[in-house]
Specification:
single chain; mainly beta; UDP N-Acetylglucosamine Acyltransferase, domain 1; 10-stranded mixed β-sheet
């Protein structure tokens, strides 16, 4: 592996000199990190993953093998992206214009996916831009996200719909008659309409 100070980059990875890689981050075999991408500290980019031009990743993010994160995606701190996840960036994708000419980068406006702190996207899920996945939310494996996901929501299906609430530990919450409670940590949450907030937050 090659090293940029404390950064570990596999010899077969393609990392632009114009990318900013935070300390103690690892970029594994056959991954590509494009120009002007910004990765925080302690990030992991798995085998064959793609990080597009100008993508921003916070500290402690994990991109699993073959995940595709297209610009202008923004990932908060501690975001998990499962194997073969796709974050899209084109609302109306076409290879050619209405006149039949091959499209160039100037023929469309990229739109991004925003994933907030602590959220997890399960294997082979697709987030169709423009959408936002809320703090500590979980998108189930294979889901297709077409609208914003609230904080602490567990969404599944095609299209994805909320099926449960989850806490910071990722475990589904249980209702005790008053609050939603994490069986793993004991943290308590309050439901307010279509949202969930931390008790005493």
């Amino acid at each position: 592996m090659n090293e940029r100070s404390s950064v570990r980059i596999a010899a077969s990875a393609d990392v632009s000199d114009e990318a900013i890689i935070g300390e103690n981050s690892s970029i594994w075999h056959l991954a590509q990190v494009r120009e002007e991408a910004v990765l925080g500290k302690n990030c992991i980019v798995g085998r064959g993953a793609y990080v597009g031009t100008g993508v921003v990743m916070g500290d402690n993010c994990k991109l699993q093998n073959y995940a595709l994160v297209y610009e202008p995606a923004v990932l908060g701190a501690g975001v998990f992206i499962g194997p073969a996840v796709v974050l899209t960036n084109d609302t109306y994708p076409r290879a050619i214009t209405a006149d039949g000419e091959l499209k160039s980068a100037h023929d469309w406006t990229p739109v991004g996916v925003t994933i907030l702190e602590g959220a997890s996207i399960g294997a082979r899920a697709v987030c169709v831009a423009p959408v936002q996945v809320g703090r500590w939310a979980t998108v189930a494996a294979g889901a297709v996200v077409t609208k914003d996901v609230p904080d602490f929501a567990l969404v599944a299906g095609v299209p994805a719909r909320r099926i449960r609430w989850v806490g910071k530990a990722g475990v589904p919450l249980e209702h005790d008659g008053v609050d939603w409670v994490c069986p793993s940590t004991g943290e308590r949450y309050v439901e307010e309409g279509e949202t969930l907030v931390e008790r005493d937050a």
